[in-house]
Write a structure and sequence with these properties.
Number of helices: 4
Radius of gyration: 19 Å
Largest sheet: 5 strands, parallel
Amino acid sequence: EDNKIDIVYNTEVWSVTKKDNIFSVQVQGNKIYQAKCVLIAIGKMGRPRQPDYFKEIPADLKNGGKIIFEITSRQISGKKVLVVGGGDSAAEYCDILSSDNQITLSYRGTEFQKVNPLNRKIIEERISSAAVRALMPSQIQKIESDAGYPKVTFKEAQHGAEKFDLVLYALGGMSPVEFLKNSQ
């Protein structure tokens, strides 16, 4: 506000080009913004990874916000949430959400290998205190819609099938190599 910066939320940038020291930033809807300077601050991962079976998840779950890839766009409270992943993001999501949600973590490994030491300590504490229930190892076989909520069936018979309010994927992301190559 102090610097009168206009922010456009929920808009995907399609390209960045430069001509005569002016950048043109094309966004969805073919709108173009012009600037003297452009800062690309998307982190090292441009798009979240999707599981192999993602296309088979019913559209009502995806479009209804029951299948999510981040937690910053809405308040999540009082929900039964399945967090899928075993890296730093998954550990952090479990930590943040466990104070006022029922959290289950699905991770295909038997022990955490992709988390930094601090996140490992935190997630292990949350599991040992029962703030987070861990299904390890576990792999999702399919997700169906059960009255508009995700019903998750696991490949491991001991985990069976269970209904959740939300499924939160924390599977890392893909570097935006093509986007960066095409930006001049």
